[in-house]
Design a protein that fits this description.
Elements (H helix, E strand, L loop, with lengths): L4 H5 L3 H19 L8 H10 L5 H8 L3 H13 L3 E6 L2 E9 L1 H21 L6 H18 L1
Antiparallel strand pairs: 1-2
């Protein structure tokens, strides 16, 4: 890595967080290239872990536009990874669920993510750090609501 150390010393925290996110996604994609998924991997995991979440939930968590999220979810649906069901409590919204195809993929994605965390130095002892970052993200979402 041929970088100017001063630039890294003075980078803002948000730059580091963005860097971590992008590099983790690149790592995931390099390990499962045959699936031709990009950020959609994260959406599969979120839907798997939160069945019946909505498109709006994903927009809020990932900061994507509604149009980009709709496009990504359409691709996942066409590729057989998710299904959308009309929310009986709000017929204008859909509940998202993973399919058996996605459910079979989740353990592989989770293991790759754990491998990445271990290789970059994230351990079980970092629970407090993870919680602090989660809370910062939640506070940031509240500021723009």
């Amino acid at each position: 890595m041929d970088n100017n150390p001063d630039v890294f010393d003075n980078a803002p925290l948000i730059g580091w967080i963005h860097n971590i996110s992008k590099n983790q996604l690149k790592y995931l994609n390099s390990r499962i290239q045959e699936l031709n998924l990009n950020r959609e991997i994260r959406y599969i995991m979120m839907i798997y872990d939160n069945p019946n979440c909505s498109q709006d939930d994903l927009v809020n968590i990932y900061g994507e536009s509604k149009a980009n999220m709709a496009k990504a979810l359409k691709k996942l649906e066409e590729d057989g990874y998710i299904i959308r069901e009309v929310n009986p409590e709000n017929r204008r919204k859909y509940m998202l669920k993973t399919t058996e195809k996605a459910d079979a993929l989740v353990p592989k994605i989770r293991q790759i993510s754990l491998d990445w965390e271990e290789q970059v130095g994230i351990s079980e002892e970092d629970i407090e750090l993870k919680e602090k970052i989660r809370q910062i993200a939640i506070n940031g979402m509240k500021l723009i609501d």
